Each structure stands twice: as structure tokens, then as C-alpha cells.
Amino acid sequence: MSTATVDAGAPPPPPSPAAGAAAVARGRQGHSVAGAIATRIGRTLLSVVASTGVIIGLWYAFIEVFDLNPLVAKDPQAVWQYLFTVPDAAENRDVILDGLWHTLGDAAVGYAVGTVAALGIAIAFVLSRSVEQALMPVAMMLRSVPLVAMTPLLTLIFGRGLLAVSVIAGIVVFFPSLVNLVFGLRSASSAAADLVLAYGGGPFTVLRKVSLPSALPALFVSARISVPSAVIGALLAEWLATGKGLGYLMQRSQQTFDYGGVWAATVLITVASVAIYALVGFVEAVVLARYGPAPSRRA
């Protein structure tokens, strides 16, 4: 039997057409993912800039049209002076920023609690119609009760600490997240689910391999709705229950006629909410471009 010898100085064989096509496909996929991310980030930044301009314009217009007392109604220039140019500006910033960080921490805990609870119950609804039929009417009934009316009872049950804030902010987050996540989990491709079942997978495998990836767009839609709602829930809890954070600071500033503090706190919490909304959009762009369903990658 003869053995073939290879010349060490010979150039390597050219790549096969199949390997070249695969490399081109990988390159195109990388460019498409990067393009999808850039497009989504650009849309988010554009919407944030446009919204900021509209809010400032409406702010000035509202004060001018209704001829509001400048002692009570502060324009953007007055807020800037309160935070940066008046003699007590440094103290004002420290007080408001301390309250802001406390409120954002409360909102983050409430958002996490509400989203995890909504995801767990949404999965239970998708896996069992009887669970959905039993619990969905209860959820809709609780949703119809104003949160302001429930806050004294929740404070009585859970106290005035972080647990109460988490429950109040979590309730605000829970209901819109539940509706969106149930819709997202049920939007999965039936053909893909049937394929998993045909290869021996069970309901939980279908959930993990098909339903949860298909629900990613719905998860981020609920995040864009629920993150500002969590901030509102945290402010409400601080205002009515805990006596801490930016919500309580706004109440105390109003009672002491520190209207500049009320407006400055409102502006900063609004800016923080817009920044968080933009951050959610950025994370959505990265995650959906790489892991989301095909239409999301092409967006």
C-alpha cells in the first residue's frame, strides 16, 4: 500500500466553497445584528430628545398661558438656579439626590418583585387553563381597586419599611406585566412547539426552548411600561407610608413652601425615569437583536 506524502513548503489548500459561504453568512449575520442594535438605539435616543423638547416647550407654554404665580410655578431656569446657582444650591442638590437614590432603589425592588411574580403566574396560566380561569378574575378585580385606597391597608399589613414599598410598587408593575407576558408566551410558533414535542420534549421543554424566547419582546414592552410605573409606585409609597425618599421630600417641601424643591425633585425624577427608559431600550436592542425571534432581529 502506498502512502501519500505532503510537501511541507506547499501552500495550504484553498478553502472549500461551503466554508467560504458559511464565513460570508456569519459576517452578514454579524452586520445585521449590529445594524439592528444601532437602529433601535437611534430610535430610542431620538424619541428621548424629542420628548424632552416637547416637555420643556409645554412647561413654558403652560406657565405663560395660565399666567401662574412665579412663587408657585417654577420654570426651567428657576429650577436650574435652585440646583446650581443660589447660595444653598449644593445643599439642595445633596438633599434631593439622596432622596432620588432612595426612591430609585425602592422602585428597582418593586419592579423586580412585580416582574418575577407576573412571569411566574403567566407561566402557570400558559401551562394550565384551569389556573388561569381561577386566578385571572381575581387579578382583574384587584386591578380595579385604586392603589391609593389600598395603601393604608397595605401599610397596616406590611409596615412602613422596604417590604411595604416593594408590595405597593410591585402591584403597579404586576398587572401590565402579567397581561403582556401571557400574550408573549402564547405568541410562540405552534410549529416549533410541535417539533419539540415530536422529538420527545415535554411542556416545560417547549416553555424553555420556544415560549420564553418568543416572549422576550413582550417582556421588554412590559418593562418600558412598568419601569416608570414602578417609580410612581415608589413615590406613592414614600408619600403615604414610609416617610422616606423623594416622595416624602416633595410632601415636606410643599408643606414648608419650598416650591423650588418640589419642582426640582419633580424634574430630577422625570429625568431619571427618561434615562431608565432609554437604558431599557438599549438593553432591548442588544438582547432582541441577538436572542429574539427573527422579526425582532430585522427591526
Structural features, described:
The protein is built from 12 helices and no strands. The protein has 299 residues and is an all-alpha fold. The protein has a single domain (29-297), classed as MetI-like (MetI-like fold, Orthogonal Bundle). It has helices at residues 17-65, 76-84, 89-127, 129-143, 147-158, 162-186, 190-198, 203-214, 216-242, 245-255, 259-291, 294-297. The longest helix is centred in the N-terminal third of the chain and has 49 residues, at 17-65. The termini are far apart.
Task: Name the features.
mainly alpha, MetI-like fold, disordered N terminus, 0% strand, 12 helices, disordered C terminus, 299 residues
Supply the number of structural domains: 1
Shape: globular
The major pleated sheet works out as:
none
Helicity level, as a percent range? over 70%
N-to-C SSE series? HHHHHHHHHHHH
The chain-level mean pLDDT equals 85
Query: Alpha-carbon distance between the termini?
Result: 60 Å
Q: At the fourth CATH level, what is the homologous superfamily?
A: MetI-like
Q: What integer value in Å does the Rg equal?
A: 26 Å
Structural class: mainly alpha
Q: Any low-confidence stretches, pLDDT <50, length ≥5?
A: 1-6, 295-299
* CATH topology description: MetI-like fold
β-strand amount:
under 5%
Helical element count?
12
**What is the second-level CATH architecture?**
Orthogonal Bundle
